[in-house]
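Holo prediction. Input below; ligand is zinc ion.
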Amino acid sequence: MHEASIALSVLNTLTEECLKRGFSAIESVRLRIGKASGVLPDALIFAFDIAKADSIAREATLHIDLIPLGGRCHACGAVFEVEERFLITCPQCQGSDFTINQGFEMNIVDMEVH
Ligand SMILES: [Zn+2]
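Structure of the complex:
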């Protein structure tokens, strides 16, 4: 399961960061996840809740900010965000000369520790 390995890698990063900074527990974690990243937020939260049991993050709550797919069209200059997970043409001019610059991310934004 894809989300299980992501949950573990998030946990590893958090644990490392937490110990490096001298904290002993994590209260909450916020992730930015692109809608086009293929990660299912519910599955990730579920996997995280299982994986965190024996870790420094066992009390931690996982928050997920979903980032829509978005980009800029080189033909008409439109800057867009769409609800779709895939984009074949520019939503404004239907052209195919555009750059996607958001929607694929998987970042830890911040965490609360103590
Ligand atoms: Zn366009």
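The longest strand covers residues 26-34. That is the main takeaway for now.
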